[in-house]
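We close this part of the discussion by returning to an individual protein. Part of our work consisted of pairing the sequence of a single chain with a tokenised description of its backbone. What the numbers capture is local backbone geometry rather than side-chain detail. The amino acid sequence and the backbone structure tokens for this protein are reproduced below.
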Amino acid sequence: MSATPKQDSSPAPDPTADSEWIEVIRQHVASLRFGVIQVVIHEGRVVQIERTEKYRLNPKAGSQP
């Protein structure tokens, strides 16, 4: 019995869809000073982009941490 390679039945990637989420991530990164950007993948496709932004406050001069 010879092994037959499994055919990939997933559709060909859509380059315009890739450029859309890449651009969204690029914009979020450019506008974020402190934080996290998470990319959620489902069945090999980007389905969600989450952004958590943090605001850092400078301690007052002369105060102890």
Q: What stands out?
A: The chain has a mean pLDDT of 79.
